[in-house]
Structure formats: C-alpha cells, structure tokens
Amino acid sequence: MKTAVVTDSTAYIPKELREKWNIHMIPLNVVFGDESYREEIELSAGDFYEQVRESHQELPKTSQPAIGEYVELFEKLSNEYDAVICVHLSSGISGTFQGAVTAGNMVDHIQVHAYDSEISCMVQGFYALEAAKLALEGKAANEIMDRLNEMKQSMRAYFMVDDLSHLQRGGRLSSAQAFVGSLLQVKPLLHFVDKKIVPFEKIRTRKKAVNRLVELLKEDAEKGMPIQATVIHANRHEDAEQLKQSIESEFPNVEVIISYFGPVIGTHLGEGSLGLGWYQK
C-alpha cells in the first residue's frame, strides 16, 4: 500500500522540506479587506507582518480551505496512492480538520485518514514530517497513525504573546485587560488543552517568560531522552536563534529547529510572539 501525506499551511513546513519528504500542502486563507491570500503561496510571513503594521484597520480575517480543494487533491492523489494521511491544525480552533474528513467521504479509490494534531505550527509539522518519513519507508497508513498517536503522548508546546493589544483587537481579550496587562508588562503563556488555546501562566516581562519556556522544556530534557524541539517566532528571528543556541548548549540531548508563526496563526497571536514545542524522539 502506498500512502501520501498532506498537511495544511499552518504547519509552516518550509517548501524545501515539503519537497524533500513529498508532503502535499493545502493552504488556509488570510483576508485583508477585499483581498484574500493563500498563506505560504501568495503571502509570506514577512510580508504579512509588514502589511499588518502598515494597516490601521481591523485585523485581517482567516478562513479554512474550501472542501473542493481537498476533493481535488485527494482525487489527484488517488491516481498514484492507495491511502492519504492528512495532518491538520487543532479542530478546536479551525474547521480545517473537519473539512478533510468531509472531503475524504466524498472521494473513491483512496482511503483518507484525517489526523487532528490538536495543536498547530511546526509542532503540527512534526507529525506530518514523521508520517512522510514512515510513508516513504512503506509503512501502512494504520501503522503511521499509531506512531502519530504515540508521539502525541510526549508532545508539548507553549506560546508567549508579546502584544496584548493584538489579542484585544482580535476580540480575544477585553480592552481593560489589555490596558492593565500592558501597564504591568504581562506576557501570557498559552498552551493547548482539549484542542483549544487557553492561558497557562501570566508572567511579568518578556525575559522571564522566555526563561519560563526553557524551564518547562528542562523538566523533560533532564530525563535524558533525545528530544526534538522547535523555537517558533513571529518576526523575531534573532531572538529565536539566541534561544535555540541557549537550549542546545544547556541540553545536549535536545535538537532545535527554528520555525515561525505564519499569517493565519500570526493574525491571532501578533508580531513578537515566541513559542517552544517539543516531543521525545
């Protein structure tokens, strides 16, 4: 059985990695006024943050792919593959996963296995990369799905929001909370619980928040198991590079790659946000 791997654009897997591991990507959309862009195809992360800074209007809106996009891709893949595994961002924050399920029931000649990563960004990307490697080894779809569930047991991710006004503009924080939080320099740490983004801790100052991210990783790193981690940034590459170097020097068993919050997730978290995710290899 030959298995294809699909993920959506919010995994933010660089194009060269997608091509290397034969990962197919379905883009979500970002809408500025009357203009809609397919992220990772028509709108890069850098261009997105620049456009947000220049815009004094409401934040852009985001939308999931149309069902027809999945159907078209699945039918195309059915010419070469017996099964497809679709790894998507958490169903608690987007209907993208359910779209894949619906489309999978509309196509013949190929088995569609939709996988809810219950998370997003490169942490979601880790699932897609693992699935792709196993698919190229000839593993069956059910074996790959079992491995993804095994990975989920040790998968962790925390995000620091730098700009509270961004959350407030997006309707996820009241004006009063944003005002008080900004005065106090509060940097909320967020994480996923039951597929949704919820507060984890409120921390004073960016430096303390970054240190707290490392402390959380340390709890797992000190067990000695090899760990794959990712530092995720919203247009703060230098900060991400420094954090990567700090982690790898302190924990020899942790391998770190740098990724980013692209347009769709960046719309909700805002520029300057920083995340750290990892799992046991």
Automatic annotation (TrEMBL):
Keywords: Lipid-binding
Keyword Ribosomal protein among UniProt keywords: no
Alphabetized SUPFAM superfamilies for the sequence: DAK1/DegV-like
One Pfam family it belongs to: DegV
Domain of life from the UniProt record: Bacteria
Protein name listed in UniProt: DegV family protein
